[in-house]
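[recover] target loaded
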């Protein structure tokens, strides 16, 4: 089971490697090309998010958890703290060791920091469903093409940290899932998927530059919906 829950993370890493390799040969992509490709990916991710969001059987609970999660995330300033940590790493490692290291750190932060990897890894671990990470693999692969074409081969090596980070989350989620009754898992997955779908819709809107949403600040909603469904399962 441990190997299978890592499938999504492995495919994501492979996507980055392949995209980076192609980027070494595509050094003349125009700004318009990059913009169009990014927005097309955003449309695809939007469709995935809508499909996931429609899985809910407890819409009111999902909306309440999304709202409360956003309040908690804004209070804790999760996205700000993540970006501060990313800036710290980039300043300490990237610029200090030349373009290769700067490219490696920049790509690692771009591919790791964000809610899509967390949601996808949780889904891989609990439900052995890798749809989100497969989608992220395509997205990261295309971004790797763009980044490698301008920053060099350091982008390719970011696949390692991405695999380790998402793989650890997936394994941890799998261990938790094994400790829960199957009937509870069946009740949890549609609502986790629905909350994750709403977050992915927000990611798509950001990617298409339609609106700016601090998606990382909504991540607590995943814990809230898990807590709510678990309490309902045992006590209602």
């Amino acid at each position: 089971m441990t190997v299978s829950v890592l499938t999504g993370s492995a495919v994501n890493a492979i996507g980055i490697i392949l995209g980076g390799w192609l980027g070494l040969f595509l050094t003349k992509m125009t700004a318009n090309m990059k913009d169009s490709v990014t927005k097309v990916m955003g449309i695809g991710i939007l469709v995935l998010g809508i499909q996931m969001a429609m899985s809910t059987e407890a819409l009111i609970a999902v909306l309440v958890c999304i709202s409360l999660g956003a309040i908690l995330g804004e209070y804790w300033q999760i996205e700000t703290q993540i970006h501060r940590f990313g800036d710290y790493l980039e300043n300490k490692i990237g610029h200090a060791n030349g373009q290769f290291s700067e490219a490696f750190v920049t790509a690692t932060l771009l591919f790791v920091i964000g809610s899509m990897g967390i949601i996808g890894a949780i889904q891989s671990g609990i439900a052995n469903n890798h749809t989100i990470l497969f989608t992220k693999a395509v997205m990261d692969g295309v971004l790797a093409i763009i980044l490698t074409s301008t920053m060099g081969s350091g982008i390719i090596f970011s696949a390692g940290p991405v695999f380790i980070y998402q793989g650890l989350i997936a394994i941890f989620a799998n261990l938790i899932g094994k400790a829960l009754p199957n009937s509870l898992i069946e009740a949890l997955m549609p609502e986790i998927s629905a909350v994750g779908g709403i977050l992915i819709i927000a990611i798509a809107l950001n990617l298409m530059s339609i609106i700016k949403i601090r998606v990382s600040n909504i991540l607590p909603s995943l814990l809230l919906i898990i807590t709510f469904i678990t309490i309902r399962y045992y006590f209602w």
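[recover] notes: The chain has a mean pLDDT of 89.
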